[in-house]
Amino acid sequence: MQAHASYVDALAGDAPPEPQEVTPPDPPEETRVAPPMPADEGAPSFAKSLLGGGPEGAPGALRDDAQRFATALALSALYGLSIGTRDGGLSILKHAAAVPLAPLAVAGLGVPALFIVLTLFDAPIDPPAAVKAAARGAATTGLVLGGLAPAMALFVTTSSSRIGAAFSAGLGLILAGAFGLRAFLGAIGTPLGRASAGVRTMSGFALAGFAIFATALSARVWWSTLPIFGGAP
């Protein structure tokens, strides 16, 4: 019996161990990368808010253009104040009132005439687009004049020659007028890209004529009204 038990124990000892259940490892957690948050642009700059604007047909667009034009005239008057500091006194007010007259005359006389001519050529230009372009051009002119005003005030007051002061003042006016005219032509010329080739050609001649007229009118107004050039003493 003992031999039989030993034999049974020996068989039991040689038996393979029972397989143990292996638990598969947990899959790694999926790491989700959050999409980058859009950068906070903050409030628009003064220049962007002055030169920007919604579509022509948006509610309040005409009011925004009017405010933009009024701001442009105020910045132009600031340039007049700066060049009037050379003589001081009442001359400051005369210069401040004379500088905004040129963009006002171009917008009041030249832009309506240009709109009528473009309408005769069947150009895709409507009154809100013309008003918006005029406001954009005046705003650009005002921004340049307002930016030059501090440096111009320093130069005209320290210049020993009145001719040099008048030349620098005129150079600032020419620079601002060129930028304003470029902005106006770019704004009013954008819708013309949808027109036919013949309309674009005729409109191009009209815009070139307007550029010459606006330059001559601005020069005439500034030369005859600004005391630093000898006008309207």
UniProtKB/TrEMBL annotation:
The keyword Amino-acid biosynthesis does not apply. Keywords: Membrane, Transmembrane, Transmembrane helix. Residues 16-26 have a biased composition (Pro residues). The chain crosses the membrane at residues 97-121, 133-157, 163-185, 205-223. Residues 1-62 are annotated as: Disordered. This is YIP1 family protein.
